[in-house]
Amino acid sequence: MKKLQVLLFAILLLGVGVGKGQYNVLLNFNGANGQSPLGSLIISGKTLFGMTEAGGIYGAGNVFSIDTDGTRGKDVFDFNFTNGAVPNGDLSLVGGRLYGITPLGGGMSNGNIFTVDTNGNGFKDLFVFNGLNGAQPYGSLTILGGKMYGMTNGGGTNQDGIIFSIDTNGNGFNTIFNFNGTDGKYPNGNLTFSNGKFYGMTYGGGTDNYGCVFSIDTNGNNYKVLLDFNGVNGKTPYGSLLLSGKKLYGMTYEGGLLDSGNVFSIDTNGNNYKDLLDFNTSNGKNPWGSLILIGKRLYGMTYMGGANLNGCIFSVDTDGGYYNDKYDFSSALGEQPLASLISSGKNLYGTVNLQHKVD
């Protein structure tokens, strides 16, 4: 018996709304080619790019690519702690170059911002976090024009995390907001942009210390808590927000009616919060990543629950109706996803993250 880790899967959506999807494993991880993918995938043409938080040549994770049909898998770049370690967010692709962040490693062991060509050449360490200017950036970069925006989970003035901006060439770093606990702490996921404002979430801080939803201008002004999570309306979100029109959609890992997490919506001005779906184990439990929107339906994954208690892929209408379990993970084909789905054509692509034994 040897251990393999299902890295990447595709699921063909057999109809929208009802019915199971056709699941296909595209790649298994074996440690040497990476281990433990925690971020989501990005797609360029027919090529998927992603990162793992462990494995690779130095055991510190890597950047990988693979075609959507499961061919031409490649270890693009290996982290070695000095140039970053344990990446767990999404990559961004701009002008043929990949941009990302790592929460550990770098010159001060607090993480860094990096860029590398899609073929693995031209790696550049753009910025090193030192604690005062942020530490442990979890999540991904949002790139607008020639600037990148992101968040760190710790560091900053109050050690509760920051929001920052930096030029794509690594110059002009600026802390645009320091979290202080009362207004949230430990931000996670990505910043969602619309009409001059960013929207995001923290998994700690706020009135009840269960996290919050916030908005802020891109220059750091007009920070506003749109929603404090209180347990009943959700708590400890670990993903990002999805924007459609003037509504934000998100998930919480815990809280809701059964303390198993929920799907919610809220207007961009903080009004009209709605609990769209409460997880109850049978329909999933503890969603970790973010939602995607296809038509009028939201798609996501849960870390646990479902028919096999190993997590599931689900869909639900934007008004909370017509829940559908699209796929239940099992120990035979991977379990307990810690990432988000992406869509391309009729397929959804994602990763799962727990080792299992096979013959």
Concise overview:
This protein is mainly β.
Any key phrases for this structure?
mainly beta, 29 strands, globular, four-stranded antiparallel β-sheet, 359 residues
Give your account of this protein's structure.
The structure is a single chain. The chain is 0% helix and 44% strand. It is built from no helices and 29 strands. Strands 1, 2, 27, 28 and 29 form a five-stranded antiparallel β-sheet that branches.
The secondary-structure element order is EEEEEEEEEEEEEEEEEEEEEEEEEEEEE
- Profile the largest sheet: 5 strands, antiparallel
Q: Label the structural class.
A: mainly beta
Q: Rg, please?
A: 19 Å
Our measurement of the CA-to-CA distance between the termini, rounded to an integer number of angstroms, reads: 5 Å
Tally of individual helices = 0
- Report the average pLDDT across residues: 92
Shape: globular
Low-confidence runs: none
Write the layout of secondary structure elements.
Blueprint: E1 2-12, E2 22-29, E3 42-44, E4 47-52, E5 62-67, E6 74-78, E7 92-94, E8 97-102, E9 112-117, E10 124-128, E11 142-144, E12 147-152, E13 162-167, E14 174-178, E15 185-194, E16 197-204, E17 212-217, E18 224-228, E19 242-244, E20 247-252, E21 262-267, E22 274-278, E23 292-294, E24 297-302, E25 312-317, E26 324-328, E27 342-344, E28 347-350, E29 356-358
